[in-house]
Each structure stands twice: as structure tokens, then as C-alpha cells.
């Protein structure tokens, strides 16, 4: 079934009006030997049939709603109010708010979102969102290279390995040089920043979950005239120092912990906040407050001359569609929880993670690799192949032990705990891992 | 009582202005006994919590419900925004997505076989619809797909030792801005090709620019005037003769979805906007999804990982030594993929081809109606899914757009493409009824009757009227000051 | 539309004026009129060396951004700092307070290769 409303009478009248004898005739400008090919697609379904077939597909998946998986996305609870409010028909079915008089709802919501991200990061200017954490990092680094006019990037190995892969793709494209800062004892080692480096990137907490003091890295960057980018965990900013306070010029990260489903890896949203002087280098949309002809307060897209639909080949980025709806879910989430609720989610996640680490490291052969202090994720060395461990745990109904890439060491697995977990959940994983490793 | 000083008239308070210290909304599970200083290190803690809003749940609900009532979407009104394909987003897709919400990208693949199967089948179906040999689902939006596609072209030339010599990308002057922006991001120099008097790429001008220094031509077909490039095969032949690759910008695929396949016309790379052609909701500007299809010779360069079938099981294949690498973490905007998959399953070949044909019929019908109302159509022949019109002499497009807002419609895309002065780019899509098109055309006529003075003051009754853009640009206030 | 006689003009709508041993550069009345309200001016850094025709600055209005080209070769020795706070000077006083930067020319006589006021007026009117 399709969604076209045309009756046979409509068709007849409309074809007559446009002077076409049939629908095929509308395509007379096209190469006639190519049009209306036979497509190898399954037979069409009704709505009920399609939903049944999707339910069958979904039944081949196991829910990870209380999983202990981490590494960019985690199982946090999304309050029931978030999706119905953010996904209201008026929001979900709107385009980018180019006509501000009829888009005040989204524009105001984005202005509020920008304020919330600014509060979390301790930096004055947030854009309206980017695709995800990894692309926010890539765009942040490109921003810094534009600003400094340099061509070399130093990135800590503490940054998520997939983010670094994405960064490499973007940097290869413009011929910029990427060098890594290795980890020493689970944290970025101190580094000499040469004068050709345009940007230094650190992560807090890093991929191993460890909380790092990034101030020395930021200072080293600034001493060499480079900018500093911090990749941060959105939830951690409820309790940890802001990137703005330890010298970050640009803070980026993944917004999923803030009210977004894991959805097998997407969509969520990437956030980016910067110092005031970088505002004209920002990629993506920005909303500003202004007033209308009657003096009424309103909101509007601003500094559009940065963007591709005006600057074309000289735009700050090609980004157009971003992640507005998922960013709105983030904003609704933050407003739903408030500062105290967010702190409680963070605290319970931290406490659960530390209790889990204590339980799991008591198992013979298991060693904690992540140094103290750490947030709500940590890495363990297991006496057995983590891919196999993850599968055997899944066989017992528990999702845990993300295999960690070999660059960090052999037989490493990442664990996360969040506010959704109970003592029983923690004990359950402990018992299951004990069996699997026995 | 002393009245509070107000500089501007505030009709819609910010969520921060509704905030009251100590008020609470949603409560998370009980907090466990915790000493954060001990666990995280006192020196790592922020001295003050972030100043987030403190509201109860009903205030939260009223706030966002109130905002939504100050917002126009397709579910509210006709939204003929050219090149944006604002078609109906079926409600059942939201139910479909919810079935897959709680999957983690790193869970054991044997526990995510349904998700992987869906992705595998979608890769196959999108390849089939575009006439390509393989498709990646990783890019998060159209422009992201463009970058992915151009980087694959670059990797292909590089693999043949030709990258150093091919530094130029050609785009028509009618192209979307994202095309030149993408070519720049991929490190290419750009050359614009003029459009000829018929609104199509000037083939002779194109041939003059073609040579062994050209990496690719980026084309939108139908182009942004809504016209099908009739010389597409000659263009592709000329490009391939000098070793350049043909890139298809899928922004306008809705006109020919399943009716004519870019792969059959000679394109080597295609990106799709699932949020346009395949009904993923635009969400106020994303999230979208921008899969990229390629011909066989470009397949080795697809981003990693690809979903593959091994016997009875589906798996992620990371063993792709020639891949351009990753363009996004994980595997793409899976939620968007579920919607596109559901759409294709329900429509099948018949529904897909019919939808494209009716999108074209609706556009042509509306074009005739607008001509009757006095609008000019500079390239007047059977158009595809959209057409470009101009207001009658003496009227400004901006005013027409603002007048339409007053009539309850979202205006067409304005001042694009750049090659038509005072352009109104109209794309009605296939999901609109004949009556809606007629009502809209009548409104387009009525606003002309109301006259210039009325138009210059419009809109009048929208949540706000025309806004001061100068103020917003010179000293932009980008956040609320607490 | 003003076309001061004492200035020289480029086809990309910059004006240039001998100012001691330097050459002051700005955009013409016609250019500011075409751009509309200017909201931001991106100026070159002092010390930068440029060739004639190099893109050297950017002028942004609400809906456009235009590159400004160096009309003569040389070294940028001074920029108009007042434009950071008052970009609207380009609209209100394009030839005086709205000057953008000064170049110490490296090619003597290059200024004379630019259009005269009369030639520029004719060029604009033929556009």
C-alpha cells in the first residue's frame, strides 16, 4: 500500500490539465528504454502485514535495556514524557526552521538547548547539534584548524577509537596530519606540542572510563598557539568540572545519555560548544534571540553566512541536516530531570559502576585496567577472549563485556553501569561472569 | 506593587523563566549512599551544578506542548518546500522504530540478527532502486553521504595512481550549496558549469572543462529547476571518456524513485536522503540518513563496516582494506533505516513507481494552477517533482512567502536556485490531495489581490511577525543569561 | 550612487586610494548597496603579503558573504579596527570611515592600472 490520495477521477482531471495522456507520458524527457524497470523487490504489504513482519525481525534481537554495555552509548532510562513531547507532530514533521514566524516552537527550543549545553560545558556558545559525537569531534578539529591556519592534529589515545577513525577520514580528506598521544597508565601522557600543531584533543572521561586532568594538555596546546578540544561524556558534566574551566576552547560529545534511545547506534546527537571568539567559525545552525516588528521577543537562525546554502564552496562545513529532534529529546530530558535529577542519575551510575568493578575484580583472573578515578565505565582484563565472554554472557541473558580494541592491550573488555541497574542486576552479572570464566 | 521592567513583549516564556529553585520533575531511581569526592576525586568535581531548569512535570508538558503550537509541520499544513520533499511521514513508522529502540551497537551480533538482517535487506533494496551494486548505510545525512561518496571517488582515483592529477570537481551553477561545500571538504578545487537556455547543463561548456584533471561531476537529476537533464547519457559518456566519475545527488530522487535508476543513466555513485525520498521525518532539521550506493568498481572503498550475509547469519564485515574508513561511529542512523525499510516493504515496486509518478503529476498540476494565478514559470515544460516559478512583475518573492504564512501555508523554497531571480521553488509531493493543491493555488492568487502593501506587512497573526535579522546577526544573543 | 573622482576602482568593486606611501582599500558605494546591511567584516592580519586579485577579506550581510580582493600587491600594514564593533560603517561611510585595510604596495604604479571613476561608473552601469 502507498500514501497517495488520488482517485481515478482525480487522475483523469489532473492529467487532462497538464496535457499528459497517462502517467508514463509525464516521463517523456527521460531515456524511454530506461523507465519503469522491473525491480527485484518483495511484494507490497499492508500496514498490519508490515508490522507483523517487523515484529518477527525484532524478535530475533535481544533487548539491551538493562545491559552493561558502554563505549559511546549506554542503557539509561528515558522518562516517559520525553518522546511524546519532543516527537509531537508539529516538531517531528517540520523542516529546518527557515521561516521563523511559523517556527518559533523549534527555534525557542533550540535556543533553550543551546543554553543548556552552554551550562553543561561551561562554554558560552553552543550550536544547534551535529550528527553524533564522532562527527562533532571531526567538525571541532576542522574548526580549530581553520582558526589557527595550521595543519597538524594531536589526539589522545583516550579518545574513543571509532571517533579517531572518523577524525582520520575527515583529516585525510583535507590532507591534514594526525598524530596520537599514547596513554600511560590509562591516561594521556604529557606531550610536547610543536608550533605546527593547530589542535590538541583529549577525552574526559577517556575511552577506558578514567577521569583525566586535562588542564596540562590544554596548557601545552595554548603555549604552542594551538587550540584544545575536549571530548566529554554529557552525563558526567552533571558532576565533573566543565571543559570550559580546564581550558577547552571547544567541547564536543555524544548526547545519547540525555534522553535518547541506543537504537543500535543511531540516531542520537552530537553537541559542540565553543569560546565566544570562535562563533563565526562554528559549523551547523545557530539560533539567536531577537524581536519582531511589534517588539515581541522571538528567535531566528543567525550567522547563516557560514553555511553551505550561502557560502557554497567556502562554507565552514557542508553540514545541513543535523540532529534537531534528538537534540530536542536531550533538552526535554534535561528539563525533566533538572540539575538535581541529573546529578542523581550521574551519582547512581558512578556508585553502581564502582560496586560492579569491586564485584567483578574479585573474580580470579580478572584485573582492572582503568586507573582511579573513573566515572561509570571501566575496562577489565579477562582470563578469556572477550568476544567469547560477551557471547556466553548473552547466552545467559546478560549483555556485557564490550571487546576493547587490541591497541589498548589483549583480552580487555569494557563494562558500564548506569542508574537503571539494581543490586540484583550487579550480582547477576557477577554470578554469570564467574560461571563463564570458570 | 512595582511592575517588573520589560524591554520586550514576551509571549512565550523560556523554560528557564518557568524555573523555581527546588522544584522537581522526573525522579530517577533512589540515589545510593555516595561520597562523590572519594569516588571521583574532589579536585575533579564542578563547584556548582549546571543551571538547568527546575520544573514539575506538568509545567514541562505545558511548556513543550505550548512550543509545539507555535510550530508548523506537514502534519499541520501544506509544506511545498522545494528540494526538501516534505511528504507525509506515516505514523506506523514510529511504531516500527520503537520495536528496535533498546539495541546496543556492541551487543553480541547473534543477539541482534533481526537488526542486521534489516540492514542487509535495506542495503540490497536501495541498491536495487538506484541501480547500484552496493550501498553503505553509515552516513547520517545527505551532505554526509556526499562527503562519503566523493571520498570514495577520491580513493578510487588514488588506487589507480591518478589522485594527484585529478584535483577538480565540476558542479552545475544550479547545484545545491552542499555540493561545492562537500567538494571543498574533500580537498577538491571547484568549477561551476553554467546552465544553458533550456535550464539544463550546457553540454558544450561542460565538455570544455572536462579532461584528465577532473575527478568527478556532481549532478542533481532532475536538477533544481525540476527539469530532467535530457543529455544525461552524453554527459556520462563524456565524463567517463576522460576517466571522471559521475556523482548523483539524490536530493531530487523522489521524481524518479524506481521509475528511472541513476545507475542505468551512467552514474557511478548515488547518495539518498532517506528523510526526503523515503519518508523519514525531517524532525525540524534532522536526524536524517544519507546512504550511498556505488557501482562495482567503487565497492572496495565503502566505509567500514558493511553488513554481510554468511550462510544463515548476518554479520558486520570490518575486513575492508581499501575502505575510506569510518564516517560515523557505529553503523548509521538505524532508526531512520527502520522507517525506510518499512516504507519500501509496504510500497513494493508498484507503490514506489506510482508515488514518484504522482509526485510529478502533482507538481505539474500545481504549475498549471499557479500560471493561471499570474505566476511566471521561466522554464515551462513538463517538470518533474518540482518547478521554479516567479511572482508577477513587481512583486517580491520574500513578500509572497510571508503572505502565505498569513494564509496558513508553509511557503515554497525561496531565492533558490540562484540562477533564477526571485525564485519560488515548489515541490508539492505525491501525498497531497488535488483539493489541497487547488486551495493553495487560490491562496497564492488571493495574496496578490491583497496587494503589495498588505504583503509587505505580512504576516500579521503568526506567533511572531517579521523579525529583526540585523540585530540577531550583529550582536547575536545565543543563550539565555541567567 | 557616489563615484569619488580621487579614487581608483576594481572590477570586483573595491576602491583604492593613495595614502602617503600606502594604499587604503574599501568597498564602493555600489558594492555596499548591493550587499545590504553589513553585519560582519573579516579583516586580514597585519603583515600578510598579497598579490593583486587575492581574496583577502570577507564582508557578510544577513544573507550573503562576499570575498574582498586585494586591488594591488603588497603587504597589509594596517586594518580598520573600528569595523569589528561597527561593521555598518561600510554602509554609512564606504569611502571614509568604512575603509578596510592599507597595503604597502610592492609593485609601484599598479594603482594606475585600476579603473578611473568614470570608467568604473560606466562598468557599473553596464552591469
Which tags fit this structure?
heterotrimer, B: about 475 residues, alpha/beta, 7-stranded mixed sheet, 3-stranded antiparallel sheet, 13 helices, 12 strands, about 35% helix, disordered N terminus, C: about 130 residues, alpha+beta, 6-stranded antiparallel sheet, 4 helices, 9 strands, about 20% helix, about 35% strand, globular
Structure overview:
The complex is a heterotrimer of chains A (438), B (482) and C (127). Chain A has 438 residues and is α/β, with parallel strands linked by helices. In chain A, 36% of the residues lie in helices and 15% in strands. In chain A, the strands form 4 sheets. Chain A has a 7-stranded mixed sheet, sandwiched between helices. Chain A has a 4-stranded antiparallel sheet with strand order 12-13-15-14, covered by helices on one side. Chain A has a two-stranded antiparallel sheet with strand order 4-5. In chain A, helix 5 packs parallel to helix 10, helix 6 packs across helix 7 and helix 10 crosses helix 12. The model of chain A has no long low-confidence stretch (mean pLDDT 96). In chain C, 19% of the residues lie in helices and 35% in strands. The chains are: A alpha/beta (438), B alpha/beta (482), C alpha+beta (127). Chains in contact: A-B, A-C, B-C. Chains A and C meet through loops of A and strand 4 of C.
SSE layout:
The complex is a heterotrimer of chains A (438), B (482) and C (127).
Chain A: H1 8-18, H2 47-58, H3 82-86, H4 89-92, H5 104-121, E1 125-126, H6 133-148, E2 152-156, H7 161-174, E3 177-181, E4 183-184, E5 187-188, E6 197-204, H8 215-223, E7 227-233, E8 250-254, E9 270-274, E10 287-291, E11 297-301, H9 308-311, H10 324-361, E12 367-368, E13 377-381, H11 386-395, E14 402-403, E15 412-416, H12 423-437
Parallel strand pairs in A: 2-3, 2-6, 6-7, 7-8
Antiparallel strand pairs in A: 1-9, 4-5, 8-9, 10-11, 12-13, 13-15, 14-15
Chain B: H1 36-40, H2 57-68, H3 92-98, H4 113-130, E1 134-136, H5 142-159, E2 168-172, H6 178-185, E3 189-193, H7 203-209, E4 214-220, H8 232-241, E5 245-249, H9 262-265, E6 269-271, E7 292-294, E8 306-310, E9 313-317, H10 334-372, E10 387-389, H11 397-406, E11 413-414, E12 424-426, H12 434-457, H13 469-474
Chain C: E1 8-9, E2 14-19, E3 22-27, H1 29-35, E4 38-42, E5 49-50, E6 55-61, E7 65-69, E8 74-79, H2 82-85, H3 89-92, E9 101-105, H4 117-125
Antiparallel strand pairs in C: 1-2, 2-3, 3-9, 4-6, 5-8, 6-7, 8-9
Amino acid at each position: 500500500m502507498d500514501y497517495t490520495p488520488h482517485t481515478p477521477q482525480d487522475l483523469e482531471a489532473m492529467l487532462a490539465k497538464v496535457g499528459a495522456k497517462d502517467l508514463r507520458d509525464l516521463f517523456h524527457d527521460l531515456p524511454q528504454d530506461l523507465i519503469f524497470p522491473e525491480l527485484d523487490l518483495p511484494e507490497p504489504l499492508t500496514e498490519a502485514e508490515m508490522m507483523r513482519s517487523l515484529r518477527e525481525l525484532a524478535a530475533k534481537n535481544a533487548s539491551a535495556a538493562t545491559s552493561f554495555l558502554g563505549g559511546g552509548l549506554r542503557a539509561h532510562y528515558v522518562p516517559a514524557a520525553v518522546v511524546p513531547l519532543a516527537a509531537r507532530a508539529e516538531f517531528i514533521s517540520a523542516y529546518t526552521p527557515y521561516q521563523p514566524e511559523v517556527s518559533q516552537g523549534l527555534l525557542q527550543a533550540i535556543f533553550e538547548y543551546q543554553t543548556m549545553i552552554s551550562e553543561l560545558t561551561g562554554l558560552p556558545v553552543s550550536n544547534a547539534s551535529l550528527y553524533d559525537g564522532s562527527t562533532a569531534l571531526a567538525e571541532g578539529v576542522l574548526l580549530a584548524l581553520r582558526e589557527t591556519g595550521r595543519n597538524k592534529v594531536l589526539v589522545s589515545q583516550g579518545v574513543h577509537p571509532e571517533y579517531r577513525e572518523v577524525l582520520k577520514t575527515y583529516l585525510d580528506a583535507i590532507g591534514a596530519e594526525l598524530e596520537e598521544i599514547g596513554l600511560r597508565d590509562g591516561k594521556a601522557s604529557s606531550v610536547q606540542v610543536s608550533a605546527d600543531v593547530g589542535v590538541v584533543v583529549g577525552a574526559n572521561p577517556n575511552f577506558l572510563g578514567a577521569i583525566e586532568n586535562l588542564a596540562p594538555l590544554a596548557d601545552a596546546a595554548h603555549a604552542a598557539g594551538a587550540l584544545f578540544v575536549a571530548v566529554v561524556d554529557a552525563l558526567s558534566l552533571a558532576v565533573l568540572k566543565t571543559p570550559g574551566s580546564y581550558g577547552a576552547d571547544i567541547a564536543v560529545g555524544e548526547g545519547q545519555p540525555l534522553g535518547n534511545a541506543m537504537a543500535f547506534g543511531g540516531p542520537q546527537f552530537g553537541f559542540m560548544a565553543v569560546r565566544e571568539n570562535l562563533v563565526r567559525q562554528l559549523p551547523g545552525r545557530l539560533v539567536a534571540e531577537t524581536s519582531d516588528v511589534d517588539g515581541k521577543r522571538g528567535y531566528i537562525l543567525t550567522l547563516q553566512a557560514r553555511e553551505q546554502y550561502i557560502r557554497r564552496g567556502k562554507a565552514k562545513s557542508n553540514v545541513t541536516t543535523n540532529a534537531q529532534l534528538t537534540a530536542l529529546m536531550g533538552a526535554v530530558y534535561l528539563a525533566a530531570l533538572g540539575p538535581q535529577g541529573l546529578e542523581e542519575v550521574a551519582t547512581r551510575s558512578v556508585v553502581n559502576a564502582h560496586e560492579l568493578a569491586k564485584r567483578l575484580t574479585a573474580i580470579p583472573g580478572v584485573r582492572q585496567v582503568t586507573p582511579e578515578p573513573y566515572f561509570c565505565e571501566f575496562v577489565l582484563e579477562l582470563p578469556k577472549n572477550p568476544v567469547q565472554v560477551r557471547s556466553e554472557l548473552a547466552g545467559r541473558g546478560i549483555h556485557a563485556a564490550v571487546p576493547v580494541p587490541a591497541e589498548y592491550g589483549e583480552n580487555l573488555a569494557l563494562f558500564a553501569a548506569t542508574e537503571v541497574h539494581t543490586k540484583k542486576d550487579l550480582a547477576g552479572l557477577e554470578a554469570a561472569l564467574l560461571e563463564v570464566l570458570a | 506593587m512595582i511592575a517588573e521592567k520589560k524591554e520586550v513583549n514576551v509571549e512565550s516564556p523560556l523554560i528557564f523563566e518557568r524555573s523555581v529553585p527546588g522544584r522537581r520533575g522526573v525522579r530517577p531511581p533512589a540515589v545510593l549512599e555516595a561520597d562523590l569526592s572519594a569516588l571521583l576525586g574532589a579536585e575533579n568535581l564542578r563547584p556548582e551544578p549546571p543551571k538547568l531548569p527546575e520544573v514539575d512535570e506538568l509545567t514541562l508538558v505545558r511548556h513543550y506542548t505550548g512550543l509545539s503550537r507555535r510550530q508548523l509541520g506537514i502534519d499541520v499544513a501544506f509544506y511545498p518546500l522545494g528540494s526538501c520533499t516534505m511528504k507525509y511521514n506515516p505514523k506506523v513508522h514510529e511504531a516500527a522504530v520503537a520495536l528496535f529502540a533498546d539495541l546496543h551497537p556492541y551487543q553480541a551480533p547473534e543477539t541482534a540478527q533481526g537488526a542486521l538482517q534489516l540492514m542487509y535487506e535495506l542495503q540490497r533494496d536501495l541498491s536495487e532502486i538506484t541501480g547500484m551494486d552496493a550501498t553503505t548505510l553509515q552516513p547520517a545525512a545527505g551532505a554526509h553521504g556526499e562527503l562519503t561518496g566523493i571520498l570514495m571517488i577520491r580513493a578510487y582515483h588514488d588506487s589507480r595512481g591518478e589522485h594527484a592529477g585529478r584535483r577538480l570537481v565540476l558542479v552545475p551553477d544550479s547545484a545545491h550549496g552542499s555540493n561545492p561545500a562537500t567538494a571543498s571538504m574533500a580537498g577538491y578545487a571547484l568549477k561551476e558549469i553554467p546552465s544553458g537556455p533550456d535550464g539544463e547543463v550546457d553540454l558544450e561548456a561542460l565538455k570544455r572543462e572536462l579532461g584528465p584533471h577532473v575527478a568527478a561531476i556532481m549532478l542533481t537529476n532532475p536538477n533544481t529547476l525540476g527539469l530532467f537533464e535530457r543529455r544525461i547519457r552524453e554527459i556520462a559518456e563524456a565524463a567517463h571518456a576522460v576517466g571522471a566519475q559521475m556523482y548523483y545527488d539524490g536530493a531530487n530522487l523522489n521524481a524518479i524513485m524506481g521509475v528511472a535508476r541513476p545507475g542505468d543513466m551512467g552514474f557511478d555513485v548515488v547518495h539518498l536522503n532517506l528523510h526526503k525520498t523515503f519518508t523519514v521525518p525531517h524532525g525540524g532539521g534532522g536526524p536524517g540518513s544519507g546512504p550511498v550506493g556505488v557501482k562495482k568498481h567503487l565497492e572496495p572503498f565503502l566505509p567500514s563496516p558493511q553488513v554481510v550475509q554468511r550462510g544463515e547469519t548476518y554479520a558486520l564485515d570490518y575486513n575492508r582494506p581499501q575502505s575510506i574508513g569510518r564516517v560515523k561511529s557505529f553503523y548509521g542512523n538505524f532508526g531512520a533505516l527502520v522507517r525506510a525499510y518499512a516504507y519500501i516493504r509496504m510500497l513494493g515496486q508498484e507503490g514506489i513507481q506510482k508515488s514518484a509518478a504522482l509526485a510529478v503529476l502533482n507538481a505539474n498540476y500545481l504549475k498549471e494552477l499557479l500560471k493561471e494565478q499570474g505566476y511566471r514559470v521561466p522554464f515551462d515544460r513538463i517538470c518533474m517533482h518540482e518547478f521554479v516559478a516567479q511572482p508577477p512583475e513587481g512583486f517580491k518573492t520574500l513578500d509572497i512567502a510571508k503572505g502565505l504564512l498569513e494564509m496558513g501555508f508553509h511557503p515554497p523554497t525561496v531565492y533558490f536556485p540562484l540562477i533564477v531571480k526571485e525564485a519560488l521553488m515548489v515541490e508539492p509531493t505525491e501525498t497531497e490531495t488535488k483539493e489541497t493543491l487547488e486551495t493553495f493555488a487560490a491562496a497564492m492568487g488571493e495574496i496578490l489581490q491583497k496587494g503589495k502593501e498588505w504583503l509587505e506587512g505580512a504576516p500579521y497573526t503568526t506567533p511572531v511577525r517579521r523579525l529583526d535579522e540585523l540585530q540577531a546577526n550583529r550582536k547575536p544573543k545565543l543563550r539565555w543569561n541567567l | 550612487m557616489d563615484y569619488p573622482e580621487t579614487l581608483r576602482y576594481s572590477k570586483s568593486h573595491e576602491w583604492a586610494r593613495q595614502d602617503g606611501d600606502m594604499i587604503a582599500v574599501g568597498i564602493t558605494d555600489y558594492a555596499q548597496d548591493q550587499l545590504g546591511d553589513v553585519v560582519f567584516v573579516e579583516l586580514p592580519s597585519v603583515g600578510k603579503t598579497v598579490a593583486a586579485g587575492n581574496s583577502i577579506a570577507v564582508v557578510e550581510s544577513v544573507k550573503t558573504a562576499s570575498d574582498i580582493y586585494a586591488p594591488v600587491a603588497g603587504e597589509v600594514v594596517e586594518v580598520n579596527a573600528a569595523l569589528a564593533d561597527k561593521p555598518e560603517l561600510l554602509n554609512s561611510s564606504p569611502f571614509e570611515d568604512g575603509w578596510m585595510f592599507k597595503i604597502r604596495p610592492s609593485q609601484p604604479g599598479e594603482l594606475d592600472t585600476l579603473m578611473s571613476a568614470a570608467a568604473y561608473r560606466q562598468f557599473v552601469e553596464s552591469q
